[in-house]
Amino acid sequence: MKNLISQRANLIDASGIRKVFALAENLKDPVNFSIGQPDFDVPDELKNKAIAAIKAGANKYSQTAGDSELVGKIAGRMKTEFGWDEPAVIVTSGVSGGLQLLFMAVINPGDEVIIPDPYFVIYKHMVNMLGGKCVFVNSYSNFELPVEGIKRAINDRTKMIIVNSPCNPTGVVYSAESLKELADIAAKKNAIILSDEIYEKFCYEQGGCCPSIAKYSEYVVLLRGFGKSYAMTGWRIGYAATSGKLKAVIDTMAKIQQYTFVCAPTPFQKAAIAAMDYDVSELVASYRRKRDLLCERLKSKFEFVLPGGAFYLFVKAPGGSGTEFVEKAIDNNVLVIPGKVFSEKDTHFRVSYATSDEKIEQGAEILLGLL
């Protein structure tokens, strides 16, 4: 029989995060530092909006680009925030769905995509599936935006530069100065910038406002979502937006969405309209406190960069091997993710502190005891 599996599918592996997360099913009351989703639930006000939408019959397809009221509200926010005259918007099935549509819309075989390392897992695998070439630029050990490295890596084959701030897995928030410098570099080579801002609400420094490269360039495709900020991870609602200069990219994403996702879930789009005006500052403040709790507990024996956002800590593995340390941690009922899942290196491990204070204390104690 012929090989049943496509060559492109064989270019990717099952998610290392999901592999570790699945282990929780077999462990007794583990400390689960593995999965990246809030430990709070969707606020009741937003649940009630979704329930009301379902009861009112908003259960059919929306327009491919999204519910018109939601699209209009996002476009208005983009115009206010970035000064784009004619923002183009598409509502997607989560930011992951937006990433897939964007990569399919712009990447040809042989196109180069610059990715700061460490990086979110989807980038590498989606680029590889589409025949693109990942060009990794080292950001170790401070994990700041590696502007000089990107400047050396960019060339006429560069189609896209990926920016993820606050960053998963490091939690680092890029400075406005470095983002502006990168925007200038990209403009000289006509490279698109993908700005993945799924964690934009989770910013603990700089007055709680994360700088966006979209303020410095109209050649940015911005991806944001509702899953992390409002605990709607299972609702699959995100969006992509850009200036009128890249409207053709959003139009192409919508064309592809017709034949893939069709549309984002309609009743949850209705709830997202209300979410855009919902204040999550108290929830974000609780995560800053969780960050401080974890860092205070681990700083005596572990090396890490204080994360300015998201809800992750990227920790240098004692002994040098992230994989070996993670195996030891799992044997002691603590689930963490090896850094090589997010990197071309295997020197760190990722901790998600999106859990209870009790579990943070318990998990930190176990990790300290492994040294």
Map the helices and strands.
Elements: H1 16-23, E1 31-32, H2 44-55, H3 68-82, E2 88-92, H4 94-106, E3 112-117, H5 121-129, E4 133-138, H6 147-153, E5 158-164, H7 176-188, E6 192-196, E7 220-225, E8 238-242, H8 247-258, H9 266-275, H10 281-298, E9 303-304, E10 312-316, H11 322-331, E11 334-335, E12 337-338, E13 348-352, H12 357-369
Parallel strand pairs: 1-11, 3-4, 3-5, 5-6, 6-7
Antiparallel strand pairs: 2-8, 7-8, 9-10, 10-13, 12-13
Helix pairs in contact: 2-9, 4-5, 4-8, 10-12
Describe this structure in words.
The chain has twelve helices and 13 strands. The protein is α/β, with parallel strands linked by helices. The chain folds into two domains: about 10-40 and about 280-370, Aspartate Aminotransferase, domain 1; about 60-275, Type I PLP-dependent aspartate aminotransferase-like (Major domain) (Aspartate Aminotransferase, domain 2, 3-Layer(aba) Sandwich), CATH 3.40.640. Strands 2-8-7-6-5-3-4 form a seven-stranded mixed sheet, with helices on both faces. The longest helix is centred in the C-terminal third of the chain and has 18 residues, at about 280-300. It is globular and about 55 Å long. The relative contact order is 0.18.
